[in-house]
Design brief:
The protein is of the alpha/beta class. It has a single domain, classed as 4-Layer Sandwich (Nitrilase/N-carbamoyl-D-aminoacid amidohydrolase), CATH 3.60.110.10. It is built from four helices and 15 strands. The strands form three sheets. Strands 1, 2, 3, 4, 5, 6 and 15 form a seven-stranded mixed sheet that branches. The chain is globular. The chain starts with a strand and ends in an 8-residue tail after the last helix.
């Protein structure tokens, strides 16, 4: 199986300013090296807002079309989330967009009650695992990180793990940034997978401060990438051989009951 190049775009989202965010991301993408998968923070083009007037209908979603255009242009998949409206409900919806325009969705399962998300958005109820370039990705969003029961890895009937990579896109505040880094590392260790988190920096419209700390951890909890509190775009390569060898040498997943 081929290795995989992952690019994280950590930036200061303009509060509830869709045109500004779209243009800014487009500019950042122009300087991106060749990559396989691009991660953008949660609610990529609005910031973590409860203002559902910004939500577009899912069936005619211009933001999704933009993501599909970017994916095709750069020949890389993109994972992020955005607020959408569907069937008279609002969702914080993760979208995994492939260059072919094929799109997999994941609705955030754990609503952030402290921020009032549970009063605005309908929570998802199902896991989404996406196969792409031979790798299997479990899609997650921000607050989901605190709930390990959502994503417990396991061996399938084939003997292979259910997934290889956990993807978290987030607006995780600076005041609890230690939790973010610690939990990302723990999820990698306990699930024998790569755990990746893409967070934002800056200050949002509610005066909440974000300090980035986007990261990639391997199945032993070692840091493949740990970003600071500055805007940046960084790319790292994941080794499929390494994660497979780890599961052979330490066959913990098969012991799960």
């Amino acid at each position: 199986m081929q290795d995989l190049r992952i690019s994280i775009i950590q930036f200061d989202q303009a509060w509830e300013n869709i045109p500004a965010n779209l243009q800014y991301i487009e500019n950042l993408l122009e300087g991106l090296p060749e990559t396989d998968l691009i991660l953008l923070p949660e609610m990529f083009h609005t910031g973590f807002s409860m203002n559902t007037s910004l939500a577009e209908d899912w069936k005619e979603n211009k933001a999704l079309r933009k993501l599909q255009d970017w994916s095709k242009k750069h020949q890389a998949a993109i994972y992020t989330s955005l607020m959408v409206q569907e069937d008279h409900q609002f969702f914080n919806r993760g979208v995994f967009v492939e260059p072919s325009s094929n799109t997999s969705i994941y609705d955030k399962q754990r609503s952030f009650g402290l921020g009032g998300e549970d009063k605005v958005f309908t929570a998802g109820t199902t896991e989404t695992i996406v196969s792409y370039k031979g790798w299997k990705f479990n899609l997650q969003i921000c607050y989901d990180l605190r709930f390990p029961e959502l994503i417990r890895n396991r061996n399938e009937m084939s003997g292979q793990a259910a997934y290889d990579v956990l993807l978290y896109v987030a607006n995780w505040p600076n005041k609890r940034i230690l939790h973010w880094s610690t939990l990302l590392q723990a999820r990698a260790i306990e699930n024998q997978c790569y755990s990746i988190g893409a967070n934002r920096v800056g200050v949002d419209g509610n005066d909440i401060v974000y300090s980035g700390a986007s990261a990639i951890y391997d199945g032993l909890g070692n840091a493949v990438l740990e970003m600071d509190n500055q805007e940046s775009v960084l790319t790292r390569t994941l080794s499929y051989t390494d994660i497979q060898q780890l599961r052979i040498q330490l066959p913990f997943l098969k012991d799960k009951k």
